[in-house]
Design brief:
- With 453 residues, the protein is α+β, with helices and mostly antiparallel strands.
- The chain folds into three domains: 34 residues; 136 residues, Jelly Rolls (Sandwich); 229 residues, 3-Layer(aba) Sandwich (Collagenase (Catalytic Domain)), CATH 3.40.390.
- Helix content is 26%, strand content 34%.
- The chain is built from six helices and 23 strands.
- The strands form seven sheets. Strands 2, 3, 5, 7, 9 and 23 form a six-stranded antiparallel sheet that branches.
- A hairpin with a 5-residue loop joins strand 21 and strand 22.
- Helix 1 packs across helix 6.
Length: 453
């Protein structure tokens, strides 16, 4: 009888061992699939997108990070990262997409790298694309931590579809602190768009193109003069025959050019040369043809960024006889004003991001400046750039001179990079086991939350 009991106990023990091994295998499979390492998941609409690891669609043995959204959502996984202030960083990865569709056109929605809570982002991929490289350059400015995110969606958009992220890499570079700025002005000679069932075909003439070239030369000289030599300026003017075929719209400005309206055209130039600011000049009306695309009385728009670089609109007047950008003694002696103004919006934003105090660019009247007929706000810009705006108590305001060395981050900052581990993959079986239990705990907490709500 005792021998029979012993055999039965051995059988039960063996059976329990087999069950335990099976359970562990299943748990380990769940862990491998759901383990996002130290990345934090975030969604605009909670519990809408699926986050997982994919070992079948991957560029290596460690698996890719997968986000899938059957319903339109803005979803990302991000990592809080300690950074050194005023330092150049580069984040890169490979991305593969399947049926990624943004909810809005020309919004920058798609698979991308982003800094959570900001408009800083990489190039983006939509549709169905094989493995493509994404790169985000950024300066930490006055920040000590940033949330590096890998996103399916956008700052102002949502997406459906699936994206796989792999080969994630973070590098620290050497920041360029020179005062040499390189500008580009893309002159789009033609606009060919359909808006609200109306067709607009508008072209610049040779005189208007020559005015842009002349004003870019004046812009260079004025910036160097107004900064007291604290800025050195180089520039290119690139004429584009290919038309602008789409425009963006908002209630404040009405129609204008967003980077996404022209990125497929200008990217080839931006890949060849490192520019610190981008102007896009276009004509949105032609009185001789009775054509006028609706705009809310702006001649230039600034404060936009593309690929970590300031991006400004310059609108050529609809009237070919306008003196807005044409130098004429006693009529307009500051035709480059709109170029200066829109670029200063970028310096204004940079000053804020770096923690420098400065007055708002549009607050000239608060300090007693007026927009004069022949020279516009020339004195305001001069004093703004030299921190020599003075109030009644003798206090001075304006841009800190350090801002002239705070340029965008470029690939040339990473000739001798320092690579930083961002994925934190488990290195041994002990870490793997800990990860299993950590993932099980997270799964239990999620199930408990869904059950209680």
């Amino acid at each position: 009888m005792r021998k029979e009991k012993t055999a039965f106990r051995k059988f039960v023990s063996f059976f329990m061992l087999i069950v335990s091994i099976y359970v562990l295998i299943q748990v380990y499979g769940i862990y491998k699939q759901k383990n996002m390492n130290d990345f934090i998941r975030a969604e605009q609409i909670l519990y809408t997108s699926d986050f997982s690891r994919d070992f079948d669609v991957s560029l290596g043995d460690e698996g890719s990070y997968r986000i899938s959204s059957d319903r339109a959502n803005d979803a990302m996984f991000f990592l809080p990262l300690e950074v050194t202030p005023n330092t150049s960083y580069k984040v890169s990865c490979m991305v593969k997409t399947e049926n990624v569709v943004p909810s809005h056109s020309n919004s920058g929605g798609g698979a991308q790298i982003s800094i959570e809570g900001t408009i800083e982002r990489s190039n983006f991929v939509s549709g169905t694309q094989d493995w493509t490289e994404l790169t985000l350059y950024f300066n930490s400015k006055n920040r000590t931590t940033v949330n590096i995110g890998f996103r399916l969606g956008g700052y102002d958009d949502t997406c459906t579809g699936t994206a796989w992220f792999d080969n994630i890499k973070l590098e620290k570079g050497i920041t360029d602190t020179s005062n040499e700025w390189n500008f580009v002005c893309f002159v789009f000679k033609n606009v060919d768009v359909s808006l609200d069932n109306l067709y607009y075909n508008i072209s610049m003439n040779s005189e208007e193109i020559q005015q842009i070239k002349s004003n870019m030369l004046r812009f260079k000289r004025t910036l160097e003069e107004f900064s007291g030599g604290k800025m050195q300026v180089d520039y290119d003017v690139i004429e584009i025959d290919e038309p602008i075929t789409s425009l963006s719209y908002d209630d404040e400005n009405e129609y204008y050019v967003n980077p996404e309206n022209v990125n497929k055209i200008i990217d080839s130039y931006l890949n060849q040369e490192e520019y610190d600011h981008i102007f896009v000049a276009m004509k949105l009306g032609d009185l001789s043809k009775n054509l006028e695309i609706p705009v809310n009385d702006w001649i230039g728009l600034g404060g936009i960024e593309y690929r970590n670089v300031g991006f400004s609109n310059i609108r050529v007047p609809s009237d070919e006889d306008s003196y807005m950008y044409r130098y004429a003694s006693g009529v307009n002696e500051f035709p480059e004003e709109v170029y200066i103004h829109e670029f200063l919006h970028t310096l204004e934003k940079n000053a804020k991001d770096y923690g420098f105090e400065r007055p708002a660019l549009h607050d000239y009247e608060k300090f007693g400046y007026t927009n004069k007929r022949v020279v516009g706000l020339k004195q305001w810009y001069l004093d703004y750039m030299n921190h020599s705006i003075e109030d009644s108590a003798g206090n001075t305001y304006g841009l800190d001179s350090q801002i002239y060395t705070k340029k965008p981050v470029h690939e040339s900052d990473f000739i001798y990079p320092i690579e930083i581990d961002i994925e934190n993959e488990p290195q041994n079986i002990v870490e793997e086991i800990r990860g299993v239990f950590k993932n099980l705990f997270k799964l239990f907490e999620k199930v408990k939350l869904e059950y209680t709500t």
